[in-house]
């Protein structure tokens, strides 16, 4: 079975996908590539002696059957580069993954309408809310949101997709033995258990070390027809992904932000260089020339009957989130009455608390 040779290659931590595919393309057969002799490797144009020696040394320490069994026993699915189901968009990038490991329902995701979302790990409230608004406009369509399962914008992208009945793909920078960040453990599980798939190019035991995060970014953009940047400083992983999207010939889009925020400097640089400005979901559909199965509508909250006091609070929160002191001033309510009404409105799902003692419409 050829698959076990792909897995064996992938389990050697010192090998890159580029190296594996160089050997595969040269020999035309993954088993022959794995079992290559020194003299055969010397005939491969551009392959250094050092890389060949490193491979041979690591290969001789690799138990082919054990590496394959270790993947199977963990319940991890995989696609190899020669698999007919390997995503075509990903196969066309420079240095595609030799093996793509995944958990969840990867093939229930519409790989013909994939949108990457990237941005700052320390995202502003404005960026988070803007992204939620835009993704809510895609509610109940067949679009799939792709992101990196990191904190910040990635987390907002995945959770907003789930809340709006969209499939989502999380691309991680480690093997499946690790959950990073640990705060996203539940999000990992939700995606794997029906809301999409978590994917990685890394063998299960590979740790989430620093250099793997920018490597992961090429897969996020590579799986996607377009990349939406929600927030990015001039030196950020999001900007790296944006540039990868351009190199891969994919559509690049940006959500504008506050010009006083350092994390928007990369956004405005991209916009000045021709990225598409996105302020609502229809901008994405127009940029990618997509038609969706359902008419695009934002989620409309059906409000229960509001009391006079609740109406005052709800009206006060129309434009932006507010704190207790602001609400007291604008509604004229007494402190105890305000707290009781806020609690009741939260339970009804009309408003929600954010950033400590601040509140906003749900």
Helix and strand pattern: HHHHHHEHEEHEHEHEHEHEHEHHEHHEE
How many helices in DSSP terms?
A: 17
How many domains is the backbone divided into?
3
Helix content: 40-55%
The CATH C-level name of the largest domain is Alpha Beta
Annotated CATH architecture of the largest domain: 3-Layer(aba) Sandwich
Radius of gyration: 24 Å
Main sheet summary: 9 strands, mixed
Mean pLDDT: 92
Question: Which key features would you list for this structure?
Answer:
single chain; 362 residues; alpha/beta; DNA polymerase, domain 1; Rossmann fold; Arc Repressor Mutant, subunit A; 3 domains; nine-stranded mixed sheet; three-stranded antiparallel sheet; elongated
Describe the protein's architecture and organization.
- With 362 residues, the chain is α/β, with parallel strands linked by helices.
- The chain has 3 domains: 1-73, DNA polymerase, domain 1 (Orthogonal Bundle); 104-288, Rossmann fold (3-Layer(aba) Sandwich), CATH 3.40.50.450; 308-361, Arc Repressor Mutant, subunit A.
- Helix content is 43%, strand content 14%.
- It has 17 helices and 12 strands.
- Strand 8, helix 13 (265-272) and strand 9 (276-277) form a beta-alpha-beta unit.
- It is elongated.
- It starts with a helix and ends with a strand.
């Amino acid at each position: 079975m050829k698959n076990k040779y792909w897995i064996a290659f992938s389990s050697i931590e010192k090998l890159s996908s580029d190296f594996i595919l160089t050997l595969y393309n040269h020999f035309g057969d993954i088993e022959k590539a794995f079992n290559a002799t020194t003299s055969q490797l010397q005939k491969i144009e551009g392959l250094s002696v050092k890389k060949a020696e490193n491979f041979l040394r690591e290969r001789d320490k690799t138990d082919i059957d054990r590496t394959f069994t270790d993947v199977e026993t963990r319940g991890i699915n995989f696609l190899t580069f020669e698999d007919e189901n390997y995503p075509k968009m990903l196969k066309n990038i420079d240095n595609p993954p030799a093996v793509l490991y995944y958990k969840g329902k990867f093939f229930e995701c519409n790989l013909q309408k994939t949108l990457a979302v990237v941005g700052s790990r320390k995202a502003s409230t404005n960026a988070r809310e803007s992204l939620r608004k835009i993704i809510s406009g895609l509610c109940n369509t067949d679009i799939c949101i792709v992101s990196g399962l990191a904190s910040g914008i990635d987390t907002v992208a995945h959770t907003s997709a789930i809340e709006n009945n969209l499939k989502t793909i999380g691309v991680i920078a480690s093997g499946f033995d690790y959950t990073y960040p640990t705060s996203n453990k539940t999000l990992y599980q939700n995606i794997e258990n029906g809301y999409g798939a978590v994917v990685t190019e890394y063998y299960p035991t590979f740790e989430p070390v620093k250099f793997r995060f920018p490597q992961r970014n090429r897969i996020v953009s590579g799986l996607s027809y377009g990349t939406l940047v929600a927030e990015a400083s001039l030196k950020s992983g999001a900007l790296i992904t944006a540039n990868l999207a351009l190199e891969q010939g994919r559509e690049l889009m940006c959500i504008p932000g506050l010009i006083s925020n350092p994390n928007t400097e990369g956004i405005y640089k991209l916009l000045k260089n021709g990225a598409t400005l996105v302020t609502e979901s229809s901008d994405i559909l127009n940029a990618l020339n997509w038609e969706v199965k359902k008419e695009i509508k934002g989620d409309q909250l059906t409000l229960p009957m509001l009391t006079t006091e609740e109406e005052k609070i709800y009206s006060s929160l129309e434009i932006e989130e507010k704190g207790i002191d602001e609400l007291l001033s604008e509604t004229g309510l007494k402190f105890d009455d305000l707290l009781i009404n806020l609690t009741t409105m939260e339970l009804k799902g009309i408003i929600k608390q954010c950033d400590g003692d601040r509140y906003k419409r749900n």
